From TrEMBL:
Organism: Levilactobacillus senmaizukei DSM 21775 = NBRC 103853
Name recorded for this polypeptide: ABC transporter, permease protein
Coiled-coil parts of chain: 138-177
Domain ABC transmembrane type-2: 174-399
Family recorded in the similarity comment: Belongs to the ABC-2 integral membrane protein family.
Amino acid sequence: MLRDKRTLALMFLAPLLIMTLMYFLFQNNTTQVASLGVHHVDQSVVNVIDTKNVTIHHYDSSQARKMIKQHDLDGYLTQKNGQLTITYSNSNPTNTSLIKASLQSGLVKLKMKTLVTVTKKQRAALESQQAALKKLTAAQTQATVTKLKTAIAQAQARGDQATAEKLQKQLKQATATTSSSTQSAKATSYTTKSHYIYGSSDSTFFENFLPAFLGFFVFFFVFLISGVSLLNERTTGTLSRLLATPIRRSEIIMGYLIGYGGFAIIQTVLTVVFTITVFKIHLVGSIWLVFLTNLLLALVALTLGIFISTFANSEFEMIQFIPLIVVPQIFFAGLVPVDGMASWLQAIAHIMPLYYGANALTTVVTKGAGLGDIGVNLLILVGFMVVLTMLNIVGMKRYRKV
């Protein structure tokens, strides 16, 4: 072990490199922001939901689905009288949760603010009514009292004691305190109604990340098996005997691609079918595009595994490359939003094959994207495969001894 400098370096330095990468990824201070389109919504509602986590965009159309797809929005809010209708894209559950939280807390704040305003108005109106009532009551009471006193005096002058006592009772009632009732104002209230374009309210974060995991496991196992396989050909001497024949290096590489590509197809079919049937993933797009993307990922992993195996002298050393080559790619596959990363981390993400594969898979599964929408990602995967194939053909030259 002490003489194997590579093993020591990978054993002690690889965990530090992975931990450092995770530190920069998860310590990023960039705030996750969701985009929300609004149409004919009261400005008071817009003000309370416009936070640092939600960006508001105003549009003139009430067609929520069309505007979400056209402008790549996370949600669209419309209003008709007091009815608020929110349509979620739901392609990213994180952004959906941000909009939900902002809308709910905003409506609560708005209701509390309205209640405070209404209470102040009620208090002012009540005080005004009480003052006017006092003046009116005082005037009416004074006139009544004067009239009753005159009638009592006249009854006493006539000697009519019964009438005088009856008028005395009425005088007491006239001078008693009167009460009044006021009508309360009613606070403005909004009701909400929700719709989902992709998935439903029961959609989970696992469903959102499942397409990325699907691509990762296909990539990982093909990379491992292909790399170890070619390494065995080298260590057992089979590769040397093949290179001693008139067989071209390109034919050997293409043979590996065709042979293991067939196994990659079977693995892709089994993995995709298992994911859809067992985990009940909501597949919005075409299943054939899912197969195609995973197949291209498998071929890239195949060529990458063959290329990396040239730097290893044993299966143990081949496995040591996994933390450096494969594990970092999962962090750039959508688990952490790449758009919110630092610029230098985004540059690293764009040289990772799994970034393009996971992006294509997620877009197809959650948004129903077509071939034209993911064409660039697929072409980049093909480019990775072609470049790695050429490097493998050139690298095979070092093993030809005759």
